From TrEMBL, chain A:
Protein name (database record): TBC1 domain family member 15
Organism: Senna tora
Comp. bias regions, Basic and acidic residues: 1-10
Metal-binding in keyword set: no
Rab-GAP TBC domain span: 358-608
UniProt-listed PROSITE patterns: TBC_RABGAP (PS50086)
Gene3D superfamilies for this protein: 2.30.29.230, Ypt/Rab-GAP domain of gyp1p, domain 3
Pfam families linked to this entry: PH_RBD (PF12068), RabGAP-TBC (PF00566)
Chain residue ranges for the region called Disordered: 1-43, 202-234
Keywords, ordered alphabetically: GTPase activation
Compositional bias annotation for Low complexity: 15-25
Entry's Gene Ontology molecular function annotations: GTPase activator activity
Lineage: Eukaryota, Viridiplantae, Streptophyta, Embryophyta, Tracheophyta
UniProtKB/TrEMBL annotation, chain B:
Record PANTHER family: DRAB11-RELATED (PTHR47979)
Keywords from the named record: GTP-binding, Lipoprotein, Membrane, Nucleotide-binding, Prenylation
PROSITE patterns: RAB, RAS, RHO
Compartment(s) where it occurs, according to its Swiss-Prot or TrEMBL record: Endomembrane system
Family per record: Belongs to the small GTPase superfamily. Rab family.
Region (Disordered), start-end ranges: 183-213
Membrane topology: Lipid-anchor
Keyword 4Fe-4S in record: no
Protein known as: Ras-related protein RABA2a
Pfam family, one: Ras
Source organism: Senna tora
Keyword Calcium (UniProt): no
Source taxonomy: Eukaryota, Viridiplantae, Streptophyta, Embryophyta, Tracheophyta
A single GO cellular-component term on record: endomembrane system
Length: 608, 213
């Protein structure tokens, strides 16, 4: 059995990295607060201490780590720390280094989204602390009780509200408060925070690793400003499928490993960049899984134990989760992003807002122009109007170029003829079921044809739909072993960015979310991974071969839930971080294909 | 893969539909499997699937039809779909000479990527557009004979010969399969009974390396 291996946290670079990332983001944010602070830190006061609070990094009792949980008040800010005891329990096998991985160093409550308490019928009470970045600490087990007291103490110092949807969830800094929500949508998170004071706290046990400061927390940063935020069904207590599975939580280390494994194997390969160890381990693991399966020839059922556990089993656990999706950005709120002349004041926060909620349909006409780079964010209303008129005449010029090609010219101009034939063929069967394109002689169809043809003329060599020469990199281990070149089963997903998999309205929503390039440029790839991960157990358990997999993926059309997969994609993206980005081969088109002449050299003057 | 009890069949035959874009592959498939026809069906991206189970010479055959994208830009990936196919329906449009001229290119695709023993049927589709016909039946017929293909003309719109086309190729595949198991002295292979896909190339020394793998 490989169980011990799977649970062995020692030397787990992933876990370390994830912890580092989590703590680094906390530290960095603390740091930035510090810069804006003018006052000297007050002396810290310990307002709560609880001994024998433990984490269970693995299922093995011998590897549990006990420590001391504290709440520390400094000025008006409250911090939480959990420091493992220096003397490991008698049979502990974890090294000092490992224990340090789990140390929670002075996390300010402004960075905490929620705390969930669990009171299992058997066993110890524990809590799960979720950061506003979406990351969560491993469960903290209260061997000597005291969860209630812990929460009560917090409540004395920061705003703590019991979730309306789940009595076991306590939300810190309740953003459902209308005032706070309004303020936060105005991007004034710090003004809102209850305890957003300098966090220049010194806790003697905690030492900040110098390296941690280098880690970019951009993907997480500012996330405490998430506006109308609700603790949603994931945390509903009556739904066992959604309950946070403690077993999976204990396999915390696997979370990152598999996220990165999947990502890296989907995106790129084995350049050694610090993850070599993980990849080696993966190589070792998979054959074992296979050989075990061979003992079960003829089985009809899916023995799930043979499938390596998915650390990001999103429905069960959300150690890492994307933030709850929001309602679309509407007109009233849109205005708040603009100055009096129509400039977008903070494009980053606008993109973030659109990322989390998309756009009301009536805003798309205007805002898509910004997202797609047609207008610049700092353009005024007037400049946008002007640009529109200029571009319109440019369009007409190019359009008149192909319109002026005579039939005789066209006969000699093979490429144009072919392109035109292709477009003509496609246009008559594009979205004809949509009201917009419905019916014979629909003028919108002609408009679409003109646009496509004009575009093909504008960018002749690019071709009008050549988005993808993508994912030709080595493949996910399983797929590789089963001759399932990922290129093929993800092909349609990527080529038309899920247009055939989602309803039309959802497609527009997905696209605008992808175009924000928030939190990363290749979110559509993470979206693919998110969808695949949902079915990985089925895929691997049923040992789908190339044909079966292709058919299976094809038949997912119409069954992909946009919001939950977006949340998962966001979580994957955060976890993969810079390393994920590094694995994406250079030249891979981003979610929003950029019109970069250097990337797509144009052939000039072939036309006339 | 686990087999559903209601999914009883003696053989599973994989058949690919190939040919230029817009010749009517998807509609041949939908006519055959769902008795549907859509003038404005979406262009296929990559591949789509449908199955239909039917009786051929007293056997229950499950036909798994792979409807591939015809557009040139997908060529690199569609060839991967030929693997394991026992039959190919190579479709052209009787009103579009270029689609017929391209048949030889598609044959080359098959020879390069599919199993050497794949059964190929040439199909001239859209016979309902009589006034637009631009490829003579005789020309296609003689080409098919020269290349050793079966040949039929169909209209997916009018449902003419669609059933016959699929029946013919499935029967031909079945004949080859059963002859093969006869000549090799084996009984009708048990594995096939289990609903497994069989490969024509099978255990013989393969004449051609399989694609992509």
């Amino acid at each position: 059995m490989q169980e011990p291996e799977l649970h062995d946290l020692s030397d787990d670079a992933d876990y370390a990295a994830s912890q580092q990332q989590a703590s680094a983001s906390v530290m960095l944010r603390s740091d930035s607060t510090k810069q804006s602070s003018s006052s000297e830190p007050d002396s810290a006061e310990i307002v709560f201490t609880k001994d024998n609070v433990a984490i269970h990094p693995t299922q093995f009792a011998s590897e549990r780590i006990s420590g001391r949980l504290k709440l520390i008040k400094q000025g008006s800010s409250l911090f939480m720390t959990w420091i493992p005891y220096n003397t490991p329990s008698s049979n502990a096998t974890l090294s000092e280094k490992d224990r340090n991985l789990y140390t929670i160093r002075a996390v300010p409550f402004t960075d905490i989204r929620s705390i969930r308490k669990h009171n299992p019928a058997l066993g110890w009470q524990y809590i799960i602390v979720v950061l506003s970045s979406g990351l969560a600490y491993p469960p903290l087990y209260f061997y000597n009780g005291g969860v209630k007291e812990f929460l009560a103490t917090i409540k004395q110092h920061v705003l703590l509200v019991r979730s309306a949807e789940d009595a076991n969830v306590f939300i810190v800094n309740d953003f459902q408060n209308p005032l706070q929500r309004t303020l936060s949508s105005l991007e004034m998170p710090r003004a809102v925070s209850i305890a957003g004071e300098p966090s220049n706290i010194s806790v003697n046990e905690s030492t900040l690793n110098e390296n941690e400061e280098r880690i970019d927390s951009g993907a997480n940063d500012g996330s405490s400003s998430v506006s109308p935020y609700r603790v949603r069904s994931r945390q509903r207590v009556n739904d066992p499928a959604r309950d946070i599975s403690i077993q999976v939580l204990e396999k915390f280390s696997l979370v990152t490993r598999f996220a990165r494994e999947t990502t890296s194997q989907l995106f790129g390969e084995t350049q050694s960049n610090g993850f070599g160890a993980i990849e080696r381990r993966t190589l070792e693991e998979t054959p074992r899984v296979r050989s075990k399966k061979s003992f079960n020839v003829g089985e009809k059922y899916v023995d799930e134990s043979l499938v390596p556990p998915d650390p990001l089993e999103f429905d069960k656990l959300s150690l890492v989760w994307g933030k709850p999706r929001q309602t679309p950005l509407g007109s009233d709120e849109w205005i708040t992003f603009l100055d009096s002349e129509g400039r977008v004041m903070d494009s980053e926060s606008l993109r973030r807002r659109i990322f989390y909620g998309g756009l009301d349909h009536n805003l798309r006409k205007e805002v898509w122009g910004l997202l797609l780079g047609y207008y610049s964010y700092d353009s005024t209303y007037a400049e946008r109007e002007y640009l529109k008129s200029v571009k319109k005449s440019e369009y007409e010029t190019i359009k008149s170029q192909w319109q002026s090609i005579s039939p005789a010219q066209a006969r000699r101009f093979t490429k144009f003829r072919e392109r035109k034939g292709l477009i003509d063929k496609d246009v008559v069967r594009t979205d004809r079921l949509l009201a917009f394109y419905d019916g014979d002689e629909n003028p919108n169809v002609t408009v679409l044809r003109d646009i496509l043809l004009t575009y093909s003329f504008y960018n002749f060599d690019l071709g009008y739909c050549q988005l993808v020469e993508l994912l030709d990199s080595p493949l996910h281990k399983y797929f590789e072993q089963h001759d399932c070149l990922n290129y093929f089963f993800c092909f349609r997903w990527i080529l038309i960015q899920f247009k055939r998999e989602l309803e039309f309205e959802s497609t527009m929503r997905l696209w605008e979310v992808l175009w924000t390039h928030y939190p990363c440029e290749h979110l559509h790839l993470y979206f693919c991974v998110a969808v695949l991960k949902r079915y990985r157990k089925k895929i691997m358990g049923e040992r789908m071969d190339f044909d079966t997999l292709l058919k299976f993926i094809n038949e997912l059309s119409g069954q992909i839930d946009l919001d939950s997969n977006l949340m998962d994609a966001e979580a994957l993206c955060i976890w993969a971080g810079e390393n994920g980005a590094a694995r994406i081969p250079p030249g891979t088109p981003p979610s929003l294909p950029i019109d970069d002449v250097s990337l797509y050299p144009q052939l000039e003057d072939e036309v006339l | 893969m686990a087999r559903r009890p209601d999914d009883e069949y003696d053989y599973l035959f994989k058949v690919v539909l190939i040919g230029d874009s817009g010749v009517g592959k998807s509609n041949l498939l939908s006519r055959f499997t769902r008795n549907e026809f859509c003038l404005e069906s979406k262009s296929t991206i990559g591949v789509e699937f449908a199955t239909r189970t039917l009786e051929v010479e007293g056997r229950t055959i499950k036909a798994q039809i792979w409807d591939t994208a015809g557009q040139e830009r997908y060529r690199a990936i569609t060839s991967a779909y030929y693997r394991g196919a026992l039959g190919a329906l190579l479709v052209y449009d009787v009103t579009k000479p270029t689609t017929f001229e391209n048949v030889s290119r598609w044959l080359k695709e098959l020879r390069d990527h599919a199993d050497a023993n794949i059964v190929i049927m040439l199909i001239g589709n859209k016979t309902d557009l009589k006034h637009l016909r631009a490829v003579a039946t005789e020309d296609a017929q003689s080409y098919a004979e020269k290349e050793g293909l079966s040949f039929i003309e169909t209209s997916a719109l009018e449902a003419t010969n669609v059933e016959k086309a699929f029946h013919t190729i499935l029967a031909e595949i079945y004949r080859i399969i059963s002859k093969k198991s006869l000549s090799s002295g084996e009984p009708a292979p048990a594995s096939v009974k289990e609903g497994k896909t069989i490969t024509v190339g099978g255990p013989e020394p393969t004449k051609k390396a399989c694609c992509t793998s």
